[in-house]
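Hey, I was hoping to borrow your eyes for a little while. No rush at all, and the record is pasted right below.
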Amino acid sequence: MLEALNAAREVGHDYESDLHVARLRELLDLAERNGVDTTGWVDPAALTTVPYQD
């Protein structure tokens, strides 16, 4: 999933990038709610979003 996120960012697909970030956040949240320590799984910088550009 990180590869797809990086690819979307490289070509400037902001909406697609945001979808990948949202899915990663959802998966991390689900893991944490089930007692899984997700520390270090995903670099926090990868979960940032950028404002849309015209």
